[in-house]
Amino acid sequence: MTVGTKNILDISRDLTSPSSEVREESSSRIRDWVHSFDRREVRVVAALLSSAVAVEPERDCRESELNALSELTASGLVEAEDLASLRELRRDLLTEPDAEHYDYLVGE
User: Fold this and answer.
1) Measured by CB atoms within 10 angstroms of the end CB, which terminus of the chain is less buried, N or C?
2) Would you call 11 helix, strand, or coil by DSSP?
3) With contact defined as beta carbons under 8 Å apart, do 78 and 50 qualify?
4) How many CB atoms lie within 10 A of CB 66?
5) Contact 77/35 with Cβ under 8 angstroms?
6) Residue 17 and residue 73: Cα distance in Å, rounded?
7) pLDDT digits (tens, 9 = 90+) for 4-30
């Protein structure tokens, strides 16, 4: 089973929404669907999330995005290049829980 192109496009739209509520809901949806993504979908969503995290201004929303990205990474289907945008984050500006997620993800 796959999530499908329409849902991937919906996730993309929601991750770039001006509303932090919509961005958080999108991260939650990704966590709910983590076992339904096929390899291509995982990599696309991981790259989108990595980019979203790198520019996310809201701390709670960034934490939700990092949680979703960690769950996707645990699938074993994410490649290092899918997480390249994370390197744009300044670790010293992250909260301790976010920094732990960051360390886990960039260490993958």
Assistant:
1) N
2) helix
3) no
4) 27
5) no
6) 23
7) 999 999 999 999 999 999 999 999 999
